[in-house]
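Suppose you are handed a protein chain with no further information: no name, no annotation, nothing but its sequence. What can you learn? This example shows the usual starting point.
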Amino acid sequence: MPKSARHKMSDYRERMRAKGLRPIQVWVPDLRDPKRIERLRAEVRFLRDHASSRDGNRFLDAALAEIEGWEG
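A reasonable first move is to predict its three-dimensional structure. Written in structure tokens, the prediction is:
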């Protein structure tokens, strides 16, 4: 008789734990929600335009200019 989905998942988790891994759950913003997207955009604009971000932005721009076209 074939194993149920529950038993397959249980076996899979046991194999992964045997490899030293553990399951975690990660919640991320739902980028399908237009309200969430607009809020994230507003936060990015705020951070980008904030006076304390200027030095950091200059540093990042310089770093990106140095690695343009870089291949590892």
